[in-house]
């Protein structure tokens, strides 16, 4: 079957509708013609299913590939992903986010697409704004989002991206009341009863021989809820505003972390440091006792609303999280609302 290269499409005659679309869902019928994207056309040309004509000359695969790469951004990467998915039995069609991917056994026109697939090079930074736009586009039509990241050796790693709710089963701590002291970059409760109560009932801090050592975000959270008051080493009481100023000088990302910490705690999660996993927090849905501490379900890392992901760094974080059986969640605040994005490797 002969097709004519016209701009960013290859146009075939009506016989191609039965041969290519009705059986394998290549292209889109347009009246009595079949319109192929350049990706689809390259795949069919490589498999010798069609020939492609430009200015009355038949194009070989190499020549067509070079022309197509000048007419379609990231053509080479998209072709790698399209070919991989097609050869593993998926129906794939072009879409606003590169491709629509249908579930195994599903067919265009009969089954809704399951995912929008976005193709990106490992070298290209990915802004949070761009990623959330992809998610919103998919959510509007009830689709999932898959990132297909192509590395320098043309290997593909697929990541599923979705919003998530961080909600646990823990009760909020009651108004206990007591004093804590700011020492350098952490806060200590010396009252053994208060220390024991907050540690065993609220799962706050680190219990150390009758005293409780709190992180800065734990301390601010408890201060804001009026469960503790905080004094400096001279005995001066610190307001929440003053304590926040001090904490921000110690840790520049403090306010961002506190917003996320407070949101998760208020939604019934237990939140502990995730430092040893390279993240801000490790998070539990439920804890019965500190003596029988379960595995945390999530690693949560806070990012600014204008964050730009470097894909090798993102890949390392996700790989580490999944190696210890946790979900990798990125949290940010937009319009005073905390949002959570769950990104994990997936096998298609």
Which sheet architecture does the biggest sheet show? 10 strands, mixed
Total helical segments: 10
Q: Report the strand count.
A: 24
What is the rounded distance between the termini?
32 Å
Radius of gyration: 27 Å
Structure write-up:
- This protein is α+β, with helices and mostly antiparallel strands.
- The chain is built from 10 helices and 24 strands.
- The chain has helices at about 15-25, 40-45, 60-70, 75-85, 130-140, 190-200, 215-225, 240-250, 255-265, 310-325; strands at about 1-5, 10, 30, 35, 50-55, 55-60, 90-95, 100, 115-120, 125, 145-150, 155-165, 180-185, 185-190, 205-210, 210-215, 230, 235-240, 270-275, 280-285, 300, 310, 325-335, 335-345.
- The chain has a 10-stranded mixed β-sheet with strand order 7-8-9-11-12-24-23-21-20-19, sandwiched between helices. Strands 3-4-2-1-5-6 form a 6-stranded mixed β-sheet.
- The chain is elongated.
- The relative contact order is 0.10.
- The model has no long low-confidence stretch (mean pLDDT about 95).
